[in-house]
Amino acid sequence: MAAPARKVLTGARVVLPSGTVDDGEVVIDGAHIGGSAPSAGQEGEAERWDLSGHWIVPGFVDLHNHGGGGASFTSGTVDDVLTGIATHRAHGTTTLVASTVTGEMDFLTARAGLLSELTEQGDLAGIHFEGPFISPCRKGAHSEALLRDPHPADVAALLDASRGAARMVTLATELPGGLDSVRLLADRGVIAAVGHTDATYEQTVEAIDAGATVATHLFNAMPPLGHRAPGPIAALLEDERVTVELINDGTHLHPAALELAFHRAGADRVAFITDAMDAAGFGDGRYLLGPLEVDVVDGVARLVEGGSIAGSTLTLDRAFRRAALVDKLPVDQIVRALSANPARLLGLDHRIGSLEPGKDADLVVLDEGFEVKGVLRHGDWVVAPQVAAAA
């Protein structure tokens, strides 16, 4: 396949690690971000795009995503998974980790094989196992009958089945085997995430000291912050080794909770995620999340039985827009939460997460209202801006 044409994007506000540049220029050489001068043999071949009145930001990186476009990453075919990936790419997510939900171990190990193939092909950035090693007290939209304690042998079986594609495992670390499993994950270079947990403050501190580095959708599926029993929220927010996931859809979090997380953890320790399920980018209706039925009404997903929130229908462009227009966060902080911080967690920040020469040409073009107008991945337009391009 021929390399993508050289592109020069001009006129936009470009968000760089060093700050925002007005009337900036981004040069794309093939599949990578180039310098200001053309590469050898590419003089005169550039497509020029005038993006005045727009923003250019790095492609979004989603650590926690169960599906979209009507397709599930837990139960769908390869084509279904690719449909979900394409749905989120059209909304700016150029790097995506596929999350599973609780299931039988044999099913999850088989699923790991399928998702690892897509990781090896470059369609996914890896696999996140959310369950079955979680607390029945905080199970959320997971089948209680399929939950199990996080014995290291079972955790290792999922890692082995993933053939190096496992990136994160969510654990209730207070359960039997929890701390040993955290140590196992840390030793094997996989993120241990504290989530769907009923842990105390002290137990959470133990888990962090054992190697846990992520809070799975902070505030959700864990004990609330108390003044005598601060629980996991206080421990996860206060420790500089921990990055906290936040679902910024207006349903999972009150704006004051999001503000608290940014104020206490700081912009370098927040990762916006979708926790999306099949309905993201697809519409209301009835869906399956693992073995459980979910009704999506007005974009909010809840279990048919019990009414618990069951993931989200969020896409990361909506999380960006809400953070800018409702939460009034500075754009550079939003970019860190959507791109730089999750890229660093995945160990991919040498390739993605910021607009710098030599990195993958993954970027998003937004208008002044932060609506997606263009998405570039590996130098190819997924969504081409509706402006004239002159060769």
Which architecture of the largest domain does the CATH hierarchy give at level 2? Alpha-Beta Barrel
* Straight-line N-to-C gap: 21 Å
Number of H- or I-type helical stretches: 9
Summarize the amount of helix as a percent range: 25-40%
Give the overall form: globular
User: Averaged pLDDT, please?
Assistant: 94
**How would you characterize the largest beta sheet?**
9 strands, mixed
Radius of gyration: 20 Å
Binding site for substrate: 141, 220-221, 228, 252, 309-311
Pathway: Amino-sugar metabolism; N-acetylneuraminate degradation; D-fructose 6-phosphate from N-acetylneuraminate: step 4/5
Keywords: Carbohydrate metabolism, Hydrolase, Metal-binding
Active site: 275 (proton donor/acceptor)
What does this structure look like?
The protein is an alpha/beta fold and 391 residues long. It has helices at 78-89, 105-120, 152-162, 178-187, 201-210, 231-238, 255-265, 316-325, 331-345; strands spanning 7-16, 19-29, 32-33, 47-50, 55-58, 60-65, 67-68, 71-72, 93-100, 127-130, 166-171, 191-194, 214-215, 243-247, 270-273, 285-289, 292-297, 300-303, 363-366, 372-377, 380-383, 389-390. Strands 1, 2, 3, 4, 5, 19, 20, 21 and 22 form a nine-stranded mixed sheet that branches. An eight-stranded parallel sheet has the order 6-9-10-11-12-13-14-15. Belongs to the metallo-dependent hydrolases superfamily. NagA family. It holds the Pfam family Amidohydro_1. This is N-acetylglucosamine-6-phosphate deacetylase.
